Amino acid sequence: MNNMYKDNIILGIESSCDDTSAAVLINGKVYSNVVANQDVHTSYGGVVPELASRAHQQNIVPVVDKALKQANVKATDLSAIAFTKGPGLLGSLMVGTAFAKSFALGLNIPIIDVHHMKAHVHAHFIQKPNENLKTPNFPFLCLTVSGGHTQIVLIKSSLEMAIIGETIDDAAGEAFDKAAKQLGIDYPGGPLIDKIAKDGDEKRFKFTYPKVAGLNYSFSGLKTQFLYFLKEQSKSNSNFIEENKKDICASYQSHVVNYLLKKLALAIKQTGCKDIAIAGGVSANSKLREELIKLGLQTNCNVFIPSFEFCTDNAAMIAMSGYFMYEKKLFAKQNVTPQARINI
Question: Are 8 and 79 in contact (CB under 8 A)?
Fold first, then answer.
């Protein structure tokens, strides 16, 4: 490893849910991003916390080793280790936190505790070697949407963020997964609904928007509305779901996406921001990406969408957060503990 990199090599570790990931960032550029998925949860229709933490214990050492080798970096070259402090599943977070603390202690280098949702926003600043991608200008708006979170965030600087709208109950990602379960679609349901919806008529079935003031969302009532819709339709036709699955998926997906962007459009008016972005696992949804581009044209805003590999949970975004925090010397102490819930 060239000594010119010595002061700026960040190892990122992500273990907030069911993906174990490690990445290496050199001078702000990502040189490796390794993710180990956990197929064990598929048969349960959702993530089982205890199984997730056990799988993290098995995966973390080989994943970190692979990330270092892909980046052509030795452990002794590292400047700091960034890890996910929260939010997430506590057992999963504990594995990543404990590994980061012990590894850093042995190397005598600092640790950086990263907020998972801030890291999703920082995915927009990830650059690979020889890349010079356009990044959002501050301040900008980011709609962060995942299985556990739905937020409209005002990003004032690389480290200063404020939630100006969020779900008051369930997240959009969960709304997709629960609908998929009711339709007999395997977990994770969101990506499969997206795939099935491509051949469906999104205008066939209508749903109503939850009445929530300001920039906040609610998906609990929408999930209930969808359940009753399926039950009612199935009374007169027991094969209703199978015969209309494509149109149901397309209609429901379109409704959720329109609801998400309806509030974002309001946020654009209120803040005057000219750069808008999406982040989080649901930002991989093709309909959301397509409609966000349309919204950008309608509002004369610049649109930023992360590449697919940086939409879902990954360590490159953790390392990117770590990079910004390393510059400010915002290091954690060895007595830091993970938190299942943590505010931005």
Answer: yes
Query: CA separation (Å) from 218 to 51, 184, 209, 221, 256?
Result: 30, 24, 9, 7, 11
Question: Residues in the chain with pLDDT < 70?
Answer: 1-7, 37-50
Structural domains of the chain, ranges and CATH numbers in brackets: 3-126+311-327 (3.30.420.40), 140-305 (3.30.420.40)
Structure tokens at 344: 């931005």
Tokens 């640790």 belong to residue: 111
Under a CB-based contact definition with an 8 Å cutoff, are residues 28 and 127 in contact? yes
Residue 41, pLDDT score: 36
Q: What is the pLDDT of residue 339?
A: 95
Closest-CA residue to 144 (of 343, 281, 291): 281
- Residue 234's CB: how many other CB atoms inside 10 A? 12
pLDDT reported for residue 342: 87
CA distance 233 to 165: 34
**DSSP 8-state assignment for residue 209:** P
